[in-house]
Amino acid sequence: QVGVTAQKTMRLLPASGRKATQKVVVVGDQDGVITCFGIKKGEAVPVFKTLPGQKIARLELGGALNTPQEKIFVATGSEVRGFTKRGKQFLSFETNLTESIKAMHISGADLFLCASYIYNHYCDCKDQHYYLSGDKINDVLCLPVDKVNRITPVLACQDRVLRVLQGSDLLYEAEVPGPPTVLALNNGNGGDSGEEIVYGTSDGKLGVTQITGSKPIPKWEIGNEKKRGGILCIDSFDILGDGVKELLVGRDDGVLEIYNFESADDPVLRYDYALSESIASIQGGCVGKDGYDEILASTYSGWLTGLTTEPVHREDGSSAELKLSQEMQSKISSLRNELEHLQMKVLQEREKYQQSSQSSTAVSSVPAFSVNDKFTLNKDDASYSLILEVQTAIDNVLVQSDVPIDLLDVDKNSAVVSFSSCDSEPNSNFLLATYRCQANTTRLELKVRSIEGQYGTLQAYVTPRIQPKTCQVHQYQIKPLSLHQRTHSIDHDRPMNTLMLKGQFSFAEIHSWVVFCLPEVPEKTPAGESITFYFQNTFLGTQLESTYRKGEGYFKSDNISTISILKDVLSKEATKRKINLNISYDINEESVRHTLKLIYPKLEYQQLLAKKVHLIDALRELQVHEGNVDFLLPKYRSILEEADQLLEEYKRQPAHLERLYGMITDLFIDKFKFKGTNVKTKVPLLLETLDGCDQDGLIAFFQAA
């Protein structure tokens, strides 16, 4: 184990020596330490270790083109350092970047670096090209120069696009199905053409795109059917020994996957393995034992884990365990000694701390610990996932919110949750819940669903199992239009409502208001004079188009409630800054019917589910009394047969029906609010109507009111 590691900070050095086949592992951690070691007889044998410093954000291997890549380069802060495979530093290059380096790629004498929004290309440490991206850059890659005969950098950007550059200019954008977090060359070399790039997204999708000189050609794409974590690292290696390189994938929920190309086109998942924490880096190669390939993974808290192809049972039928008994026994006894030594050390340090804390000059020290957190909107079920990962075991997490939100069930979550009653009036507390974790839990996943129009802050108080007790608070913004997600395009044929703003505001000011209202908008003011963003509501499927520039903004949506929320929030924000806004709107009556048609199938489904769930107990009682249910109608028999699935689904989506009722009520109030009519007195009548009417009846009620 090393210190906490960032994404893409572990590599395998090529085997050195004529006969050597075993590779050496090099890994950089957030304490700034580079550790290089080999494995002999199951033990880690150190090659070199550097002194601590600034945290290492990336580690790459380099060297002259078409020679073994055995020079080690690390990015720390805004500096790039180079080390030989023996640990001697030969390069210290202080870049002109004002921010810390987030991503790095090396190809021969070319160095490609990215901070949050800035891309820089250096050749022999001399500045060559520069590009300012429209959204955050997560990773950078360059197509192999020896194959494509040109320098083609590719940036993976948060706004769901790969930006392909030529010099300092944007050549084109390639759309991908989710925010790309990692890039790798297909097959390790870009495929036959050298132009194929594998990307992994933060919502767990995987795909290959061919980056030609003029346009992108999507090759294949795998969705995330199993609802697994986001992809953090990718490698290509022939682990199955069939002459074709497999795709090795590491995810942020600890799942390691091996994809095999059985047919020439789409990969097939062959093996998977679950680790207990997120996988930051993944590599294939021979490390521990000659003749047996392995997959090496480094996880967030710094564990390096190897999975081997060495068979547990020998070909002669005897178990390998017997043959290993001698080797194993010595390993176990050395581990026992190490454990005893560590326990003694802990006791001594604890006594030392107790004495120093009781002395007259005592200074209380708060132990530092790092938390890796991720708060993202899931498109499939319109809920937010909050993932908290701590370098040591978590004791408990307290979740507090000042806006109404629902906590949803997560299958992978083994923590015990308890709710506290909270008074929403004086403290504006709407949720207080404590998750008590089982021993050795380092990763916790929560799911929440917010209500659009209600905005505020969700806070997580994370307490790990360390002494003295200490806690970190992490805050997450629930935005007014929290269930909207960025999308590449929208359907312009839908009936749209328009909100128009005019006033004495700058481009930066209106952009900051949009950032406040909507998720997935880059905080940095876009370059240029105007910008257009498209969004889709993940719960209803309605859409929003926002176009704005200095002094004016246009917002179009097929849902009146979205326009109403924007109008209220934007006018509030402008009032705070004493800016006079001229607000006008154009309401399309047809849009209300259109939105109701989108909501109604969901409403019908949830009403039917609720009715079925209410019948289950009565039907089960009948089953117990009668012993036989053949006399029941088929629809009631099917409810009994599917009872467990129905209850499970109902439990997974608490308050789903209330949400839909709330949305229809808001739509009803908003429709008439724009006409200047208050219809709140008619809401009870609307709720009565909802219980038993069909789609046409509901539309008729809206038109008659």
Can you describe this structure?
The chain is built from 11 helices and 42 strands. It is of the alpha+beta class and 705 residues long. It starts with 9 loop residues before the first strand and ends with a helix.
- Proper CATH architecture of the largest domain: 7 Propeller
Q: Main sheet, how many strands, which sense, barrel? A: 6 strands, antiparallel
Per DSSP, what share of the residues sits in E-state strands of 2 or more residues? 35-45%
CATH topology type of the largest domain? Methylamine Dehydrogenase, Chain H
Rough outline: globular
Number of helices: 11
CATH superfamily label of the largest domain: YVTN repeat-like/Quinoprotein amine dehydrogenase
Question: What is the share of helical residues?
Answer: 10-25%
> Tally of extended strands?
42
Report the radius of gyration as a whole number of Å: 29 Å
Q: What structural category do the secondary elements indicate?
A: alpha+beta
Total of domains? 4
Unreliable segments (pLDDT under 50, ≥5 consecutive)?
none
Mean pLDDT: 88
Oligomeric state: single chain
